[in-house]
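Entry 14. Structure prediction run on the chain below.
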Amino acid sequence: MDYASSLEPLRPFYAAAPYGQVWAKPSELGSYAEVADLLEKQNRAFGASEATLTNIEKLRAGATAIVTGQQVTLFGGPLFTLLKAATAICKAKDAGAVPVFWLATEDHDLAEADHVMLPSRHELHTLRLEHSSEDAGKPVGRVRLGEGVRPLLKWAAELLGPSEILDALEKAYTPDATYAEAFGRLLTAVFADEGLIVIDAAGREFHRLGAPMLRAAIERVAELEALLLERTRLLEERGYEAQVLVAKGGSLLFLIDDETGVRVALKHKDDGDWTAGKKQYSTAELLAVLEAEPERLSPNALLRPVFQDAILPTAAYVGGPAEISYFAQSQVLYEAALGRTTPVLPRLSATLVEPAVAKTMAQHEVTLEDLIGTHPDEMAQRLGARAMPMEGKKKLAAAGNALDEELKSVTEWMERLDKELGKSAEVASGKMRYQMDRLRRLAANYQLQKEASLGKHVDALYLNLFPNDHPQERVIGAVAFLARQGEGLIPELVEIAAQECPGHKVVFLD
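Output returned:
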């Protein structure tokens, strides 16, 4: 929050302020013809539009990139997928750059990627893809969807109804596809008009390009560890917390096991040797793996953005709150390994209010702030009280006011008689006020039972705007909004992302 609201760079943690439009310059980043070749091949496989291919040619000619990214998840993941991409597209226009979406295919937490939540009229449904135990611990991008995706597509069709996004889902999420392939196809289709470039850098060719960062993580492990420990100390000294725990003997790398395909954390010893699970390696052996099979060495959350920016001509990165916190630590790695620090920009954070939901909010004079700050049961009570006949409201108000006035008079008199007696009077008065509140709740509950629609309205508001006590953008699948709002949603989000002010936006859709 300090970073997002700052007009000046929050040094030394960040290179620039969030809304200063400070971009890395093309002259600082070099030539990227080889990257363009790889991206063209990959994006054609994803079904790239002419707009995307044109942007790849701009990269080849020396354009920079505004980059964002996330894990590859079932059916495109939560709403913030769209918000991230829309922000990158918007900022790319500002910077004269091209938008790039980095698929975090090397992450190995399958439990975070194997599901999506989609709403029906009265319920939020979790669509989860079952996998065998053999897939556990492997980079998610390499895991195939399998036949289990077919019934989930049918379920999604029932929830979404006929739509262009459903057609795109069915084309992308086929049983033979990996998570990386399916997510890449879907994202390419959704942002075809905006020319979004998608990159899956888990393969050998891209890893060769980022190999200098992987080599530095091996050869300079003690130096980089010391820098990160000092950065943790400085963050804590300034009253912050390190987003990623840095422990002595850890490292910035994972190793993909050559037998199981599982992604295992690498740890280093004082004698220069390394361990990955039960296996041991010398520094020379790890460097040999890097030379022959660079794709087996995988950066962790702190090194990943540095690895990314060794491959791409990144002018700025668009991230969510956790990613921005990573950058406060990664900054020391940027300077030590890459020689420069990439600016990081906050993504658009928003709650989308669709017309039917907006109508219900207006009917009951409820704001998003009301919902976030109030338990659903309490909100239902509030609406029941509002719906009560005026005669009942007046009687309860009169009784409550009279009770307060008389109790205040009595307790003051008793306190003058004796302080302990006054304390006892306060306790007794509290109990009487509690009973008065109980009368109000009884009347409100009766109104709720009498008007069943009130409870349904409360349920619908929380389901759509603050599901499971979490922000909408982090829970509800993006495809639900695309199905209901259609192709016009994307340019609208891109336009909203241009409104640069810190904080969360409430967006009322047409």
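The mean pLDDT is 92.
Filed with the rest of this week's runs.
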